[in-house]
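Q&A log
Question type: sequence-to-structure
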Amino acid sequence: MHPFAYVAPVTVEEAVAVLDKHGDRARPLAGGTDLLVKTRANVWELDAVVDIKNIPELMTVTVGNDGLSIGAGVPCYQIYENSEVAAGYPCIVDGTDIIGGIQIQSRAALGGNLCNAAPSADGVCPLIVHSAVAHIAGPGGNREVAVEDFCTGPSQTVLKKGELLVSMSMPKPPANFGAAYTRFIPRNEMDIAVAGVAVSLVLDPSGQNFESARIALASVGPVPILATAAGDSLAGKPVNDESIAAAAALARDAASPITDMRGTIEQRRQLIEVLTGRMINKAIERARG
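Response status: OK
Response body:
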């Protein structure tokens, strides 16, 4: 493994300066569950590793009237063990609770899961259906990117030279809101999704009609997919099996999977349809309390 410098900045500005100086030969260190594996495998040859865990903005979870903000370095267990997050954003808990095992969750960060940009990432689709925004700092200042636009390909993101993901924020859910995420894995020993689906929806005050919905798909394309047509199809429709089945079929059509050792194209399409129906029903249950 190529020797590298370890840098532990205490401000966003210091971290950005190091990342900008070294470019692609520097990487932020949050939990290190992906960084160390790739470095040891010589996927990356680094001159500097930038430990972000001493930067307050990257290690804070805030729940308030404006919504939820999660620092990019916050480990998964601090998210799913937060009672306010669990009460208001259960879909985020659904995702963080299954990223690896307990040991991994004590280190791995939701921000790292997003920046790793794996199509099978369990944390990204829940962020998408919660309309999350990524807050980025860089040499040229700060900017915001919708999470559904953050990943541009496998292991590729919108981050430019010197830029650092600081946090992800999402609005406070409205009344009659429900959301849920699940995945299918081939066996317990292979903890990578063959397919995954996150759903969020808002019901009308009667609880009998859909007002709006967002559906996101994991592991069935080069990036997590926001299935816009599937979600939009539910708006204004009654809550019944016909509406749900139609949305699930559109989600299946939005998938663009490949065949690999974990599953075939047809299996993944079928899984997306089945899982979408299940998650719509689970989100309905949560929306109704």
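Response note: The two ends are 52 Å apart (CA to CA).
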